[in-house]
Specification:
A: mainly alpha; B: mainly alpha; 3-stranded antiparallel sheet; about 10% strand
Chain lengths: ~220, ~170
Amino acid sequence: MSDKDDPTPDEAAPYNPPMELVYSQSRHRQESAELTDSDLAVLARGGDSVAFETLVLRKTPAVVSVARRIVGDAEDARDVAQMVFVRVWGELHRYDETYSFNTWLYRIATNLSIDFLRSARSRARAHGGTLHLVRRREELSGDETERAAEEGQMARLFADASRHLSAKQKAAFVLREMEDKDTAEIAEILGCGESTVRNHLFNARRALRREIERLYPGFLRRRS
Amino acid sequence: MADCRGIASRLPALAEDSLPEAERREIRGHLASCAECRRAAVESDALLAFSRFGPEEVSEAEAARILDGVRHAVSLRRSEARLKGRAPARSLGKVAAAAAALAAVLLLPAGPRPAQPQAPASAQIAAPEPVVGPIAPAGAMPAATDSGATVYDWNPGGDEPRVVWIVDRSLDI
């Protein structure tokens, strides 16, 4: 081989520019997981679907929980939760990040649950309660663990006892006793005054005690 | 964190929701981790059976199912929004075209126009006949273009769906 054919040192060195990671969805997900709810909402509003999905996964337990307590059925609660997140996606441009994202989310979740409950009640009236019986049969035939069965039993007890509460009374009770919200936040979520919330809670407790006494006389132990 | 001794005496006030918020949180925190006191609470007032003292658990499978449903619904909404977004643009185009035509009519000088030189008959290019042959789709409204192509438009001037089929005989092989 002649000298002419030998590559120069520059030619021999492979072109190996420093590589830079431009975008990684898994890294983006990790970074999103560290952001606050409000930050994620702002990013989602700008079209960041990873941020939106992070928000959905983070808030699913809370939304399912409040929906399940208000609508009284696990399957319905999942449907409501999906509607809530789709509504959130559609309304993100209205979210003011100077306010609590949780309160805003609970407002949407509670309103949709109340709407669902009202329409379910009218459906139940139209079908003479058959729908409720069918659903209950489906729930009982499910593969429930012992704890889920216990929780399910309590949920059914609450569903029975709360049937005569107004939707707002029920929502106020759920937010206070099950979601541990204070009166001021419940007022903001329900869009009413704190005194109205206290009235809803007072009437809800009275009606629930009355219904438990009527439906399950052995369950309620009178205090001395 | 409160211990069991101070709980029992405050359970009635907890049930009546008459405790200060901090004290209420403290007792609920204790009840979340103490099964014995939870039993005592329910015996004190059945309504406390409905209180949830810990976070709701949602399985990963359930969360994934909900996320999947949300993705699907959002995707549909986006498609709907895109379709809706096109309609106004098209209407705007129609309005602009109409305005331009109106402006041309109004701005053109009125009165007799000077006679235009007549081109010899042989030089006149006849407007191409719309090609309405066996390939013309049923229900389509044909319109000839300057290039001789024929455009079939389903639902002309109407809303979605708008389907256009262009037949250009000059490209025939």
